[in-house]
């Protein structure tokens, strides 16, 4: 009976089961320690079927990275209401980011830890995702600058640098929040909002911090 059910199950459903099992295994065990036998057993299929659908372990890991990256980017984009003021947009984007990473800890581990620590071709997949999020955040910060000034005071290079810094901080904080019991997505988002927004708001209103003049 089991074999008949396996044949009747749509390929897309069966493949999603395998991918879910792979993300869980890679996220919890790590890329090198994870085995195709473990993934097949967790998915309830034979190992040859995993190879038939998803090919090699490297291909499977790359597919997991792409799937989890696409889901994260979509969650952040969907979480931002463009009708909100600048701080509201940033807050809603951060909440969406931390909510997604908290609800998908294995997927975040794949993206943030495993993919980055095993070189190419995996790291290139993560770079694509990160570039998309940085570009999105750059747009939010740029919009905030335009909201504060008819003639934006922030140069494109400054906006890009702030976006890189904010995304980097969010990535690190998400890893910490997932490893620290009791830290909610809302709390993590509020922590970063409090850290970032005061400085951003000062910049938007032409009140940047200046380093002390070098006496020499």
What fraction, in percent, of the residue positions are helical?
over 70%
Uncertain residue segments: 1-6
CATH architecture of the domain at 62-205: Orthogonal Bundle
What do we call the CATH homologous superfamily of the domain at 62-205?
A: Tetracycline Repressor, domain 2
The helix-and-strand class reads mainly alpha
Instruction: Tell me the quaternary state.
Output: single chain
Fill in the CATH topology of the domain at 62-205: Tetracycline Repressor, domain 2
Label the overall shape: elongated
The major β-sheet equals:
none
Q: Number of DSSP strands?
A: 0
* Mean pLDDT across all amino acids: 82
Order of helices and strands: HHHHHHHHHH
| C-alpha Rg (nearest Å) | 21 Å
**What portion of the residues fall into strands of 2 or more residues?**
under 5%
**Regarding CATH, which class of the domain at 62-205?**
Mainly Alpha
What's the N-to-C terminus distance?
83 Å
Number of helices: 10
Explain briefly what this protein structure is.
Residues 12-72 form the HTH tetR-type domain. The chain is mainly α. Helices cover 76% and strands 0% of the residues.
Structure description:
The protein has 10 helices and no strands. Helix 2 (11-29) packs across helix 5 (57-79), helix 5 (57-79) runs antiparallel to helix 6 (86-103) and helix 8 packs across helix 9. It has helices at residues 2-8, 11-29, 36-43, 47-54, 57-79, 86-103, 105-114, 122-148, 156-179, 185-204. The model is unreliable at 1-6 (pLDDT under 50). With 216 residues, it is mostly helical. The protein is elongated, with a radius of gyration of 21 Å. The chain has a domain at 62-205: Tetracycline Repressor, domain 2. 76% of the residues lie in helices and 0% in strands.
